[in-house]
Specification:
Distance between the termini: 34 Å
Oligomer: single chain
CATH class of the largest domain: Mainly Beta
Organism: Hyalangium rubrum
Order of helices and strands: HEEEEEEEEHEE
Number of domains: 2
Protein name: Outer membrane protein beta-barrel domain-containing protein
CATH topology of the largest domain: Porin
Strand content: over 45%
Number of helices: 2
CATH architecture of the largest domain: Beta Barrel
Shape: globular
């Protein structure tokens, strides 16, 4: 019931903001027609390791498995409106390891879907993305394969603000939480950079 109430309250706001944003774009001459919209764009990210809870207990630092990795994919935005749904297909390529077993590579093919707030020019980078994710973590010498689900928030507009202020965007603007459905039930949290 609470979620339905939130939806009823937020929908008119999203609709009004989208209409105002669309009108500004038309007045500026930057938007000609839906046919000019760039539907598919590359998406990439860099994450800086993970804080992992195994069976809901914090894993000691010497046993941590998340060292870092990249995300490479393609995102599909069906609409140039201010608040636009999107879906992205890609792969996480991670470096994992600890002081006992060593270091391994890990692949996680993934689907991400959510809502994006486009910038006023209707071009990339996007101002904000809120998304859910689901995929399969392939096994390696450190841990077995399993299903991964999670959620993320990326605010590329913060990167633009950092660039304008400091000429280099160094503060991470992406945060993700994920749950690996392995026998150990691993929950992870990480930060990084994502476009």
């Amino acid at each position: 019931m609470r979620h339905l109430l939130m939806l009823v309250v937020l929908l008119p706001w999203f609709s009004a903001e989208a209409e105002e944003w669309e009108a500004r774009r038309r007045r500026s001459g930057r938007y000609e027609s839906q046919s000019n919209w760039r539907h598919v764009a590359p998406t990439l990210g860099l994450h800086l390791g993970s804080v992992v809870l195994s069976d809901y207990h914090l894993v000691p630092s010497e046993e941590q498995v998340g060292i870092g990795g990249v995300w490479l994919g393609l995102a599909f935005h069906p609409s140039p409106r201010r608040a636009s749904p999107f879906v992205a297909f890609g792969t996480e390529l991670n470096v994992v390891g600890n002081s006992f077993e060593g270091t391994f590579f890990e692949g996680v093919p993934q689907l991400r879907a959510g809502i994006a707030l486009m910038n006023e020019d209707g071009v990339f980078p996007i101002d904000l993305e809120l998304y859910g994710l689901g995929g399969y973590r392939f096994g390696n010498g450190l841990r077995p394969g399993t299903v991964r689900v999670g959620a993320g928030l990326s605010i590329p507009a913060f990167a633009v603000a950092q660039y304008q202020a400091y000429k280099i965007p160094f503060i991470p603007w992406m945060v993700e939480v994920f749950y690996d459905m392995s026998r150990q039930q691993e929950v992870g949290f990480r930060v990084g950079y994502h476009f």
